[in-house]
Amino acid sequence: MTRKMIFLLVFMSSLVAVTAISQPAGTDSEGPLQARAATERIGTKIAVVLVFCAVTITVILTKSFKYRKWINLASVIVLGFVLGSVLSPSNAVQNALILFNTAFLILFLIPLVLTLFFGRAYCGYICPVGSSQELVSFKKTRRRVPQKLDRILKFVKYSLLLFVGVLTIIRGQPAGNMSMITPLFTFTGIAAAFVASIGLIAVSVFYYRPYCRYICPYGALMALIAKLSIVRVRVDDSCIDCKLCNKECWMSAIESGHADQDCIMCGDCIEVCPEDSLEMRR
Fold it and tell me: String of b and e for 229-256 (b: at least 16 CB within 10 Å)?
């Protein structure tokens, strides 16, 4: 199992590297610097993302988690195919550093503000890249990543965030186009980009949201902010430490009722708790 996971991660990392090196900057709808050419669409994207945020907040507050998959599907269709992925999580950070004086900054900040209040809900409900991984993942085909390896691999996304951020600031230009899955939405990019996208989807069938958990630099930034989130999964004194929540959480973000910054607010742990000990609250 461990060897297979390491092989798959190396495979995914290679695809990211090939995409970043081979694909010219700005070949996807939200690639580095490309957002400047799409300024006229920013207003529409901001409005649609705000609607998705409102629906997501409603689902969380009303505990209507059964509708999350439908939001994921709507995200793939509307934010992915119709609007061209809106925010490429691979390139969002470097885009914001370059386009900080444009309306793109507003679009970039909306998910971060949502994260401050509701953790990584944007990742779990709204992001079309995360949603596409979610929709191809079924419990019958999923494989568990060993806990120790999982903890180590989660540091990869923070390393990429640091690398992309620092290199973009030093060079004054994007570190490179590392877009994953976005080419499948926009039907643009070179062959390597499509291979990377298809490869990621294939890996997602067996390992739950691998890009969100281990590679996404935008997700890493959200995870850091999520440590300060106001609403999160809380456990009360009725917990019997049955650890069913641990088994149900495929993000490996909860342990004995205590959720960490990688929680995507899916509500699966709450629904499986036999004592109703878990709740999303302040």
Answer: bebbbebeeebeeeebbbebbbbbbbee
Task: Please state, in angstroms and rounded to a whole number, the distance separating the CA atoms of residues 198 and 12.
Answer: 10
Backbone φ, ψ for residue 279 (5° rounding): -160, 145
| CA distances in angstroms from 127 to 74, 82, 111, 137, listed in the order given | 10, 14, 9, 16
Segment 16-65, tens digit of pLDDT = 444 444 444 443 444 444 444 445 578 889 999 999 999 999 999 999 99
Q: What is the CATH number of domain 233-281?
A: 3.30.70.20
Q: Identify which has the larger pLDDT, 208 or 26.
A: 208
Q: How do residues 112-144 score in pLDDT, each as one tens digit?
A: 999 999 999 999 999 999 999 999 999 899 999
Tokens of 205: 């069938």
Q: Which amino acid is at 67?
A: Y
Nearest to 246 by CA among 282, 280, 278: 278
CA pair distance 237, 149, nearest whole angstrom = 31
Helix axes 39-61, 104-118, angle to 10 degrees: 10
The type of residue at 243 is K
DSSP structure class, residue 136 = T
Asked if residues 92 and 32 have their Cβ atoms less than 8 Å apart, the reply is no
HSE toward the beta carbon, residue 196, CA cutoff 13 A? 29
Give me the amino acid identity at 128. P
Is pLDDT above 90 for 226? Answer: yes
Name the phi and psi angles at 204, rounded to 5.
Answer: -65, -20
What sign results for the dihedral spanned by CA atoms 143, 147, 153, 155? positive
User: Parallel, antiparallel, or unpaired: how do β-strands 254-255 and 232-235 relate?
Assistant: unpaired
Q: Where are the domains of the chain?
A: 2-226, 233-281
DSSP string covering 226-238: HTT-SSEEEE-TT
User: How far is the C-alpha of 195 from the C-alpha of 15, rounded, in Å?
Assistant: 8
Residue-level pLDDT at 112:
97
